[in-house]
Fold this protein.
Amino acid sequence: MNIENLMNEDIQIFDVTTYGLGIGEHKGKMEYIARDDMVICGLDYVIQILNKLSIECVLYAKDGDFVTKNTLVLECVSNAQNLHYAWKISQNLLEYLSGIATYTHHMLLHARKANPNITIATTRKNFPNTKEMMIKAVLAGGGSVHRLGVYDSILIFKQHLIFLDDKLKLEEHFKQLKTKFIEKKVAVEVDTYEEALYFASLGADILQCEKMDFDTLKKCVSLKSQFPHLLLSATGGITVQNAYAYAQCGVDLLVTSSPYHAKPLDIQIKISKQEDNQ
């Protein structure tokens, strides 16, 4: 993550208001306070911003900590100019990333009431150029990564299969894929039980069950009795509200992009004037 680019979006050349008021050299303290119960995330980035501005700070929490309402998570001291440079960009980062982390945390809690071993894994449907930050927030909330990109895992979609419309050709290429990347698990997206059974019989390691009703999903899960190595994921429209119901179907993981759309949480920023001898 390029911290300087993030800062330049807001700062550019100088802070017109602080400069115009002539208060830039006044000493001040800035406090970051959680206004909600939350899983805090973004502090690592905020510290980088503060370091760039030579702002002294004290941390009272770390990324991934669950903090209660009114908890002081960070305080720092510097001149007014630097505090105002850091204020809004650092607040935005903490609010957005803590929102994602907290949503992921609650989604995992709901799902694990039905299946203590289930995993919540997020997709690559993040807003462009935000992947690093969003993934960091998901991990802070206890989630995992479904795919970082096309380079790190094998996932066969129907968009691939349209180029292999002959069944014999498909089976030949599937076998080649398994052989060529023998260390990697092969996942296939399926939306019917018949497709699930077919690809399980070909040797798929993971069946990604797309937008299935619960009865069909449970039927696909029953394939694990025939294919003990098989893992199943549910995907498509999975949110914190329905995570428990999907987990009840017996899948191994829930694949979702909903944490990326979590509502930002509230971080209060308090700035106070400090006397020179403080």
Summary: The domain at 3-106+263-273 is CATH 3.90.1170.20 (Aldehyde Oxidoreductase; domain 3).
